[in-house]
Amino acid sequence: MVHRTRAVAAVLAVLLTGLLAGVTGCGAGGAVYNFGTVVHGAAGRTVEVGLTPGRRFSLAVTDLAVTDGAGTGGWRLAALPDAKVASFISEEHRAEGGHETRYFVFNAKYPGTATVTLLACADCADKEQGRATFRITVT
Questions:
Q1: CB-based contacts of 125: which residues, under 8 Å, 6+ apart?
Q2: Nearest Cα residue to 43 out of 121, 136, 137, 135
Q3: What does the pLDDT read at residue 136?
Q4: How are strands ordered across the β-sheet holding 86-96?
């Protein structure tokens, strides 16, 4: 009975270690290692994105020196798109060549069209220079 208890404890310890390793994320602080199809956008631009159902994709933008007045610049989603067309997975940050790129990772779902707007600052909603737009079409 003592051997069985030790064996069960050892198995639980291994499972718990694996679970805790998964909770802490995958290297470089990111939770996603597969960005899928990466589509680059920029402030003041609209990008058309065509995908098939089940395809993972990322909308990528380079961080600007734009701030929201509180000194906290950085891109953010204005609103989530229609989840029937594209479901949001996560937002990731990667330092590349002296600047930071933000990746907004999605899964293409069912046929349809959705618009994703990324804002470079809190008060950029009506300013073209602080807005990147992506028109997602799943066919």
A1: 78, 119, 131
A2: 121
A3: 97
A4: 37-40, 56-62, 99-108, 86-96
Is residue 105 classed as helix, strand or coil in its secondary structure? strand
Distance CA 87, CA 17 (A): 30
Number of Cβ atoms within 10 Å of the Cβ of 61: 22
Q: What is the mean pLDDT of each run of 10 residues along the chain (139 residues)?
A: 50 39 40 86 93 97 58 77 96 83 95 94 64 95
Q: Which residues pair with 112 in a beta bridge?
A: 138
The angle formed by the CA atoms of residues 92, 22 and 19, to the nearest 5 degrees, is 160
Cα 7 to the center of its chain, rounded Å: 40
The pTM of this model reads 0.70
